[in-house]
Write a structure and sequence with these properties.
This protein is of the alpha/beta class. It is 38% helix and 17% strand. The protein has a single domain (3-237), classed as Rossmann fold (3-Layer(aba) Sandwich). A nine-stranded mixed beta sheet has the order 1-6-5-4-3-2-7-8-9, with helices on both faces.
């Protein structure tokens, strides 16, 4: 997805939540400067090629950390056949490691359990660090700590080595990433758009609004039909993710 295609949605998100584009752009610039301090930074086409190798043509299990939903038992029948890979959304990396699986890709804005993400990176996960206006301190602390492949994405216009495949939260950005790099399908595991994880007092309603946007964005990907999107229900059933206008 070219940024000009994503930009109208991005501008809508800025207006809805009162985010600052200037701060997003400053964070993106800081991430560009920080990435070379990591041991194995991937910039521009190097990042694109690495992500394509890990995602293209594969059936992806995308793991989130929604409350009340069991993470997919890993290893599992879904990973035992075909060309499959696991992508984790930030804090879900800890659940993956606890179940004995190292994700191929971690999509993170650095608010999960970061020592686990460093451990997964050491064991082979590609970490895609996302820059936005309020995580610059975390980037400064953690980007240099990743020992293996690390790339960068940003909320604003990418340019100069960063990616912006589209998406807002770590979970829906993971879906956009899989579509962008040619995944055949995505199975959403541990996604709950109605019941946020525990949040600091005063932020729960904002989280609900963010999850509503995330759901709408995933519906857009499902509607385009380039990558099949399924969801694992709390009853451990796989069903198609509802596209706009579909019955739920």
């Amino acid at each position: 997805m070219e940024f000009h295609e994503w930009e109208p949605e991005y501008r809508s998100i800025l207006g809805t939540f009162g985010f600052s584009r200037a701060q997003d752009e400053a964070a993106a610039e800081e991430l560009r400067r920080l990435l070379p301090t990591a041991r194995h930074p991937l910039l521009g086409t190097l990042a694109e090629d690495a992500l394509r190798r890990r995602l293209q043509g594969k059936d992806i299990v995308l793991v989130g950390r929604g409350p009340g939903l069991l993470p997919l038992p890993l290893p599992s029948p879904w990973l035992e056949a075909g060309d499959r890979a696991v992508v984790s959304a930030d804090g879900a990396t800890s659940a993956c490691l606890a179940h004995g699986t190292v994700p191929q890709v971690i999509v993170t804005d650095l608010d999960g359990r970061l020592p686990d993400e460093v451990e997964a990176n050491l064991r082979g996960a590609l970490v895609l660090v996302h820059a936005h206006g309020d995580n610059r301190a975390a980037m400064r602390e953690w980007v240099p700590r990743f020992p293996r492949a690390v790339a960068g994405s940003c909320a604003a216009a990418p340019g100069r080595g960063l990616l912006n495949p589209g998406g807002f939260t770590d979970g829906d950005r993971g879906v956009f990433l899989c579509e962008e790099f040619g995944a055949r399908s995505v199975l959403l595991v541990g996604f709950d758009f109605a019941n946020p994880c525990e949040e600091p007092e005063g932020t729960l309603e904002v989280k609900r609004r963010k999850l509503a946007v995330a759901r709408r964005l995933i519906e857009q990907v499902a509607a385009r039909g380039r990558t099949r999107i399924d969801v694992l229900t709390p009853e451990m059933k796989v069903r198609p993710f509802a596209a706009p206008g579909a019955r739920r």
